[in-house]
Amino acid sequence: MFKGVKGIVALAGAAVVVVAIAYASYVSTQAQPPADQMAAASDPGAQLRVTLDPKNFQGNVREAYEIAERDPTLLAQLHCYCGCDKSIGHKNLLDCYRDTHGSRCEICVGEAHDAASMTSRGVPVERIRDALRARYAHGS
After folding, report:
1. Which 8-state DSSP code applies to residue 46?
2. Structure confidence at residue 17 (pLDDT)
3. What are the tens digits of pLDDT across the range 62-102?
4. Is 137 exposed, middle or buried (0-12, 13-18, 19+ CB in 10 A)?
5. Under a CB-based contact definition with an 8 Å cutoff, are residues 74 and 21 in contact?
6. Is residue 98 classed as helix, strand or coil in its secondary structure?
7. Taking the CB of residue 39, how many other CB atoms lie within 10 A of it?
8. What pLDDT does residue 49 have?
9. Which long-range contacts (CB under 8 A, 24 or more apart) does 115-118 make?
10. Contact at 8 Å (CB) between 93 and 79?
11. Closest Cα to residue 128, out of 99, 92, 95, 100?
């Protein structure tokens, strides 16, 4: 197929092109920040999204995602009592709203609504934790 010096040069040239393309592809994926960071960089007012977009949901579920989006620090301090920590590795109630789990779980939605209600009345997070535990922990 490849005979002589011309064949070796052609084969070596093809190998160089393949390596160059692979390297360029690797470098471009390493050099690019994630899409959400690029969007934030182009729009200085944009925030990095911590939860899924509440607009993707309806009713009480949408309100729960709005609560998580509005006060992620609160939900990050609360345990979720539906068992998602054991079944899917969630570390706190906020994690339920980082994926679609919160849209399918009445316990997660209830906890978010209860926490927001108590926060609006000035209840400290320690008492919110106690109240959520008393109401939802019976199944854990």
Report:
1. P
2. 54
3. 999 999 999 999 999 999 999 999 999 999 999 999 999 99
4. exposed
5. no
6. coil
7. 13
8. 75
9. 115/67, 115/74, 115/75, 115/78, 116/67, 116/71, 116/74
10. yes
11. 92
Contact predicate 81/105, CB 8 Å? no
What pLDDT score was predicted for residue 137? 93
Structural contact between residues 32 and 80, judged by C-beta atoms closer than 8 angstroms: no
Q: What is the pLDDT of residue 32?
A: 42
116: which residues sit within 8 A by CB, 6+ positions away? 67, 71, 74
Residue type at position 58: Q
Confidence of residue 105 (pLDDT cuts 50, 70, 90): very high
CA atoms of 36 and 98, how far apart (whole Å): 14
Length of the chain: 140
Detail the DSSP E strand segments found in the chain.
none
pLDDT tens column, 26-68: 544 444 444 444 444 444 434 567 999 999 999 999 999 999 9
Encoded tokens for 76:
């990050």
